[in-house]
Amino acid sequence: PQQAQLISPKTGLNNYIHLKKLGKGAFSEVVLSLDPTSSQKLALKIIKKQLLNLQHQDTKYCLIEAALLKEFDHPNIVKFYETSEDKNAFYIALEYCKGGNLLEKLKILGKFDEKTSAQIMSQIFSAVDYIHKCGVIHRDLKLENILFGKKDKMDVKIADFGSSYRKKYNERPKGIFGTQYCLAPEVFSGFYTEKVDIWSCGIILLMMMTGKYPYFGTCLNEVKEEILALDIKGIQSRIPEASPLLLDFLSSVLDKDTRLRFSAKDALGHPWILCFRRPNLPKS
Ligand code: ADP
Ligand code: MG
Known about the structure:
This protein is α+β, with helices and mostly antiparallel strands. 33% of the residues lie in helices and 17% in strands. The protein has 9 helices and 9 strands. The protein has a 5-stranded antiparallel sheet with strand order 1-2-3-5-4, with helices on one face. It has a two-stranded antiparallel ribbon with strand order 6-9. Helix 3 (114-133) packs antiparallel against helix 4. The longest helix is centred in the middle third of the chain and has 20 residues, at 114-133. It is globular. It starts with 16 loop residues before the first strand and ends in a 10-residue tail after the last helix. Adenosine-5'-diphosphate is lined by residues 22-23, 25-28, 30, 43, 45, 78, 94-97, 100-101, 144-145, 147, 159-160, 162. Magnesium ion binds at residues 25, 144-145, 160. ATP binds at residues 45, 49, 144-145, 160. One of its GO terms (molecular function) is protein serine/threonine kinase activity. This is Protein kinase domain-containing protein. It comes from Stentor coeruleus.
């Protein structure tokens, strides 16, 4: 590899050779790396301490991300290899997803058809059902955090558990996490549950069908108004070609009433998902 570079020699992840940048988030950079001992390629997420507020809860979240990934074992969740820390950063070594993220894919394809969308959503809901059963809320499901395992296949994996919450006895999730365009309406009320992830999945699906962001607002207050105003009529007008089954599915996934909104398990049992289901999908 050109300009191979070794990361800090004192970490457990020391010998990885950095090949190229794969992506970037608010606090992290993800680098395609090579483990010279096994010749295996992997994605190394480098969370720079300089960008974190170490007095604050940020450190806790890095640790949570690694701990959750370590615990999870699901074909539609990115696999964890190892983690480490030095004075500059936290490092999380992950399975390399060759196909990039869903936002990049959407930009290339323009839109997805219903069949492909249903096959992708079925995998996402399968992973969401699994994490919810583990008592975890992802809180930042969005197109950038859904990765394609292979280049030209539609196998997807959920990534980025940096904002996730693990349910605790006698405690409720607090604070607004996640990214504006995928936020569920109840997040603004201060009381929310794992159903926020279902709403985010609905927004992901809406974007796959339209090829566009769902809102026009430029600040949180403007977007908040649009989120609170989103209804099935508005959804239908954005995708006039949608099948009745898809509209029925979206109306239950994007239901503002969290008691009526689908669970991940409900979503997996809906005919829109079932009629396109691939025979080899993992059982939830
Ligand atoms: P952040 O928490 O900073 O948002 P992410 O974990 O979401 O970081 O990673 C940022 C971007 O890096 C992703 O949107 C994706 O494009 C890329 N990326 C992350 N993990 C992987 C991976 N395992 N394989 C390939 N690309 C990845
Ligand atoms: Mg991310």
